[in-house]
Amino acid sequence: MDPLVEITSLSHQFSGQTVLKDVSLSIHPGEAVAIVGRNGAGKTTLVKHMNGLLHPHGGRVVTCGLDTAKVSVAGLSRKAGFVFQNPDDQIFSRSVAQEIAWGPKHLGFPSAGIQKLVENAVAATGLNGMEKVNPLDLSLAQKKMLCLASVLAMDTDLLVLDEPTMGQDLAGKQRIASVIHKQKRAGKTVVAVTHDMDLCADIFERIIVLEKGRLIMDGTCEQLFSDPDLLTRGGIVPPQVWQLGQKLGLDPIPWKEELLLEQLHSIQTCRPDQQS
Length: 276
What we know:
By secondary structure, the chain is of the alpha/beta class. About 40% of the residues lie in helices and about 20% in strands. Helix 6 links the parallel strand 7 and strand 8.
């Protein structure tokens, strides 16, 4: 199967400073990939190349078979949806429903289909009853949900999320996790920039770690959370389950809830009967 995103020797600079250095990776259809690392590591810069918001200064990026340096952002918008970290960089319509409908409308979707897409996106993001609300009257968390809904309504093959759980409470994080799970089940590809390691442990099979613009790991959660050097270099705070496992002295340290429960169950069943 051909990659959905193919990045080859990508480099990028801002004001003469190199922020991405010779990054190469492939992302295939149906994958869920998290990109993690310290602030300033180049995470957002990397994903903005996937839909043409930025163009390479060196190397090449191909998304859905299209060279992103040779196609407009509008030309890629049918294939790659991007949810910004700051919702105010994305929202411009006068109502929630208009904001969500704008994308599919300008992509030429049938009118009857647009309404269904809007309804599905509203339901998925918990914006029911807010369709007529001006986005300026929404909270930060609701604005981020609106941006997610507007991209979901475009039904793209690739969904790129920049810090999707930032500003969300537990219910919001769970809703976002549910959206990502549904995208995966539908065969869509999800790429997320995130500092939320609980989200990574729960959802993402593949983790990419950046350090000072370089790719230093491309592997699994298990590989990341079992490598103290990678955790330090990436400035990564492991998930709460991992932190609990460490305090309990478990070896190996579990990074996922079911792994913790399995180890605790194993310890319990191996203990001698104290009542005999």
